[in-house]
Design goal:
By secondary structure, the chain is of the alpha+beta class. It contains 3 helices and 6 strands, in the order αββββαββα. 29% of the residues lie in helices and 35% in strands. A 6-stranded antiparallel sheet has the order 1-2-3-4-6-5. 25% of the residues are buried.
Length: 111
């Protein structure tokens, strides 16, 4: 599945001043790693965020969001955001900020 390159560029711009950002092709799109930890992905035309697991249940109740499902299991701390939830810059920045705030607390998968 192709991913929205314009959306990926919006994420690149949002993370431009964040240190230690790398990109990896994964989750059917491109994932932005911050300090070797998954932070934000662009999959199709959606954002996928890694954020505080305590927020997951609350956020997936909102319209335009859904839980990440892997192997039939809901993954706490990972949610997809539909394009209508980040059309304007203020909303887009809010979602990116939630992911960046959690990133220092997230565990690295790097061995």
């Amino acid at each position: 599945m192709a991913y929205d390159e314009k959306l990926a560029n919006r994420v690149r711009e949002a993370l431009m001043d964040v240190p230690k950002v790398t990109e990896k092709k994964m989750f059917r799109g491109v994932t932005f790693m911050v300090d070797d930890k998954m932070c934000v992905s662009v999959s199709g035309n959606e954002l996928m965020l890694r954020l505080d697991p305590e927020l997951t249940e609350q956020l997936v109740e909102e319209n335009g969001t859904r839980a990440m499902v892997h192997g039939g299991k809901h993954m706490k701390g990972f949610i997809y955001i539909s394009p209508e939830r980040f059309k304007n810059q203020k909303d887009f920045d809010h979602w990116i900020q939630l992911a960046l705030e959690y990133n220092p607390k997230a565990k690295s998968s790097k061995k």
